[in-house]
Design brief:
Helices cover about 25% and strands about 25% of the residues. It is an alpha+beta fold and about 300 residues long. It has a single domain, classed as Double-stranded beta-helix (4-Layer Sandwich). It has a seven-stranded mixed β-sheet with strand order 1-2-3-13-5-15-4, covered by helices on one side. A three-stranded antiparallel β-sheet has the order 12-6-14. Strands 8-7-11 form a three-stranded antiparallel β-sheet. Helix 1 links the parallel strand 2 and strand 3.
């Protein structure tokens, strides 16, 4: 392996996000470098790798697998003309059809992907949610299309003692039905079954660092044992708190960037761009957390 231990982390925000330098993630990485990257993720929760050239499918999958176990296959909403990418481990976060043409306004995949502009945590709608997500930029629009990341650890730290006591043992229900449904997206009967709500703690403890964080997402639509109106108001209040500017890093994409974030400590959202005019080709690989988040509840 040609990569050596010359890693440095240059902070890009006071509480979240750093650029990782000194490693070519297009080459195989050693266990020592993988450990250093894990340590960087524990500290910054979002790492930016700037290469200038997008990773190939093989390179991105190899890099992702060097850091853990990838998620299993699950139901995805595809473009009406079919699947564009050739490997099921890649999630197609684009506005393109299989012939690389822009999706039309009424394509189900386009409508579904508009929900990515809501604050969310990847795979919180699964019993075993996501650990790291790694998103590689192949084509970016001339303006817009940034990605924002909110530090849910800092958001927890800045909550008042009364609120911490109120929410520390609460459990929320998450589903794509809640998040995309708020935008009017229509699900098939099979999708309603596939996206049945799952339970996640409202406060979780990071399995490596022990830090507490809020576990919020647009996928959260109910709180167990709480009237629906009160639950939605609480979720909205916490989300407004957690996405204050002091907790949020906005990444300005360049072609070739790979950005990796820890879903156990962050929320994120895509920002708008002219998706009916310009292509935005992003490809994501995802690591599983390996165990239900309820096993890492707050224990406060």
């Amino acid at each position: 392996m040609r990569n050596t231990m010359n890693l440095t982390f240059a902070p890009m925000h006071p509480v979240i996000g750093a650029e990782c330098k000194g490693v070519d993630i297009g080459e195989p990485i050693s266990p020592e470098i993988a450990d250093a990257i894990h340590d960087g993720m524990d500290r910054y929760a979002v790492l930016v790798f700037r290469r200038g050239t997008p990773l190939t499918t093989e390179q991105q999958i190899r890099f992702t697998k060097s850091l853990g176990e990838t998620e299993g296959l699950y139901t995805k909403i595809q473009a009406e003309k079919g699947v564009r990418l050739d490997n099921p481990l890649l999630s197609d976060i684009s506005n393109l059809d299989p012939s690389d043409k822009l999706l039309p306004p009424d394509d189900r995949k386009r409508l579904f992907n508009l929900g990515n502009r809501l604050w969310h945590s990847d795979s919180s709608y699964k019993k075993i949610p996501a650990k790291y997500s790694a998103l590689c930029a192949h084509v970016i629009p001339p303006r817009g299309g940034e990605t924002e990341f909110a530090d849910m650890r800092a958001a927890w730290d800045m909550l008042g003692a009364d609120m911490k006591e109120q929410i520390k043992d609460l459990v929320a229900e998450h589903s794509r039905i809640f998040s995309k449904g708020t935008l009017g997206f229509q699900f098939t009967e099979q999708e309603l079954i596939d996206f049945e709500p799952v339970r996640q703690p409202l406060v979780r403890t990071h399995p490596r660092t022990g830090r507490h964080s809020l576990y919020l997402s647009s996928h959260a639509g109910r709180i167990v044992g709480m009237p629906q109106v009160e639950a939605l108001m609480l979720l909205r209040e916490l989300t407004e708190h957690a996405t204050q500017r002091e907790f949020v890093f906005r990444h300005q994409w360049r072609a070739g960037d790979l950005v990796m974030w820890d879903n156990q400590a962050t929320m994120h959202r895509a920002r708008p761009y002219e998706d009916l005019k310009y292509p935005r080709d992003m490809r994501r690989t995802t690591l599983t957390a390996g165990a239900p988040a309820l096993g890492y509840a707050s224990a406060l």
